[in-house]
Amino acid sequence: MHYTFQHYQESAEYIRRRIGAFQPKVAMILGSGLGFLGDQVENAAAVPYGDIPHFKASTAPGHKGRLVFGTLEGQPVAVMQGRMHHYEGYSYEEVSYAVRVLRLLGCDTLIVTNAAGCVNTAWKAGDLMLITDQIKLFMESPLRGENLPEFGVRFPDASKLYTPALRETARSAAGDLGIELKEGVYMYFPGPQYETPAEVRFARIAGADAVGMSTAPEVITAGHCGMRVLGFTLLSNMAAGILDQPLSEQEVLDAAAACKDKFSRLVLECLKRM
Length: 274
Ligand code: HPA
What we know:
The termini are far apart. Helices cover 31% and strands 24% of the residues. Helix 1 packs across helix 3 (97-104) and helix 4 (164-177) crosses helix 7 (249-272). The chain has helices spanning 5-19, 92-95, 97-104, 164-177, 197-206, 216-224, 249-272, and strands at 26-30, 42-48, 66-72, 75-81, 109-118, 128-135, 181-188, 210-212, 228-238. It has a 5-stranded mixed β-barrel with strand order 5-8-7-6-9, surrounded by 4 helices. The chain is globular. It is α/β, with parallel strands linked by helices. The structure holds hypoxanthine (HPA).
């Protein structure tokens, strides 16, 4: 089943009734470890995904499953506390459904964060990476199916999915805060199994610096509907096969907890400068 424009409108209408005249400008999809920023939103109205017509729940650990509307660093935001993943059983259209709803609500900018495996052997676990571009091959696009021209064109340009001006904002924010920020390419893998060492070697040859199971579908959808995008990756672990040790969810969550402070300071500083 594909969504029609009317589905998105119904979701947006429901949310509008809950948030009144408030108009969010920046949508934020917070991955592992940064969901707590949603709790810092001022004058917040929280809408559980389950209340919103046509919305799906989010089942991944550490993901709360609600939209928080309010002000953060002086910016009117809509924070997704928890995202949907393809590995949870959702189609790519479902995974990126909320992006279009937030676009209808007035968001013109999307900030995405995630945790991912580090493919670049010159870097280390715990580093932060500004996403400059992404690779999502082999599986279908979230835009597959009839195009909805209310959102964008059939064959959208993807040459600057991660907005250059926002990348510059992130560079200067990181510099001013004294936070080291790597820059690189995020390669999407569907999961939920972590990659094999051979897949990680493949990713490296393909030009990737990080491998992860989220973000890329939502960013394609955001680009299609003309949103500016800023993306950050917490390199929570060295990708499979680089170190002689198995990968675990716990390692990812521990790294997210350890980097929570610098990661959130950086994201908030960027938000302030938007
Ligand atoms: N691979 C894929 N997704 C991830 C990883 C990884 O190594 N670490 C955190 N999310």
